């Protein structure tokens, strides 16, 4: 391909689990021959970020950590790759001209840079579900005004995106998000009370970053995905169902008004969703394991136990309340999760804290601007931190 035909991409969070999978897909689809990398961003893993930037010939590399600026600059010395750090560097990366941006920073830290890319009209491949959970309709409005596409990468939402025909949207009755149930699917509350972050992070099917792995164990990941789906597909809370499906083969389903249910299936490998978002509306060739149905033999399903996994009920509550309750849910969850990772609170305390923060902040007014979203997030973190101490 000649220079003009190359697609320009930016990967926010290139050093993480989604980020490295994204670079893997890009390289399998021709790498530097077919793509130009406008920017890559990371945080603490400077040597990996520098290695990625050199390998893909990125124009710009950013670490979120201001204190690592010098280190990144040294690591990229002589390469001609521009370097920056901190929040302003992340925004600059997002604003660089690239038609497709992978939003794969973890947590609410991804919101401002993803918004910056959305506002200038880039197609957003969205792994960072927190954008939709916290900012909901304001985030969608930024995408709409910018004029780019929103391409869901979260495997469940990508599955729904794959089977949701636009002409048939009026006939969607419900969507059914599948959940693996995580490592504690069959554990009692008593057993869960004493687990550590090391135990909680061991996911049975998916290999993911630390925080989302623990969120899968508590089912807060599914809770965030319920709110994410509600915004993404414009549905009422009662149209969003969750079913535990331990094999993670069905990635999610759409139920239509004629009784049909359409599903997307595959081996649990995020590169399918990433490749779909990169190739949309076409499909690309990827070396994902193929499903062998005879070997699988069976698929299991069970209702989620909301008593052992209160996160599901909290998501429903946040969806029904609307307003900034998504930001309250996510902000308090992130603070509780960090405290659990540090061993300061127990596993079950995470949901208890989120519930108390939602009680305390139930009357916050709906957000008019993004600043209101950031303020609600901050209040939720502050309130959660008070409960933890
Ligand atoms: P990860 O922890 O593996 O990687 C996170 C990335 O964000 C890294 O590049 C890291 O350097 C960067 N980062 C960390 N803190 C930052 C900060 N404060 N500011 C800027 N950048 C920072 O996470 P992940 O598992 O790749 O998840 C990324 C996002 O994708 C999350 O929102 C997660 O919920 C979502 N997601 C992940 C998966 C998965 O399979 N891993 C699946 C679905 C959705
Ligand atoms: Mg998911």
From TrEMBL:
Which top-rank group of organisms is this from?
Bacteria
- Listed GO biological process terms: isopentenyl diphosphate biosynthetic process, methylerythritol 4-phosphate pathway involved in terpenoid biosynthetic process
**Which ranges carry the DXP reductoisomerase C-terminal domain?**
265-382
Residue ranges occupied by any 1-deoxy-D-xylulose 5-phosphate reductoisomerase N-terminal domain in the UniProt entry: 9-136
| Needed cofactors | Mg(2+); Mn(2+)
Q: Which UniProt keywords apply?
A: Isomerase, Isoprene biosynthesis, Magnesium, Manganese, Metal-binding, NADP, Oxidoreductase
Q: Where does 1-deoxy-D-xylulose 5-phosphate bind?
A: 129, 155-156, 180, 203, 216, 221-222, 225
Q: Which InterPro entries match?
A: DXP_reductoisomerase, DXP_reductoisomerase_C, DXP_reductoisomerase_N, DXPR_C, DXPR_C_sf, NAD(P)-bd_dom_sf
**Residues that hold NADPH according to the record:** 15-18, 45, 128, 130, 209
SUPFAM superfamilies annotated for this entry? 1-deoxy-D-xylulose-5-phosphate reductoisomerase, C-terminal domain, Glyceraldehyde-3-phosphate dehydrogenase-like, C-terminal domain, NAD(P)-binding Rossmann-fold domains
Q: Which annotated residues bind Mn(2+)?
A: 154, 156, 225
Q: Which GO terms describe its molecular function?
A: 1-deoxy-D-xylulose-5-phosphate reductoisomerase activity; isomerase activity; manganese ion binding; NADPH binding
Pfam assignment, any one: DXPR_C
Reactions performed catalytically: 2-C-methyl-D-erythritol 4-phosphate + NADP(+) = 1-deoxy-D-xylulose 5-phosphate + NADPH + H(+)
The pathway is: Isoprenoid biosynthesis; isopentenyl diphosphate biosynthesis via DXP pathway; isopentenyl diphosphate from 1-deoxy-D-xylulose 5-phosphate: step 1/6
Job description of the protein = Catalyzes the NADPH-dependent rearrangement and reduction of 1-deoxy-D-xylulose-5-phosphate (DXP) to 2-C-methyl-D-erythritol 4-phosphate (MEP).
Q: Which family does it belong to?
A: Belongs to the DXR family.
Q: What is this protein called?
A: 1-deoxy-D-xylulose 5-phosphate reductoisomerase
**Which organism does this sequence originate in?**
Sinorhizobium sojae CCBAU 05684
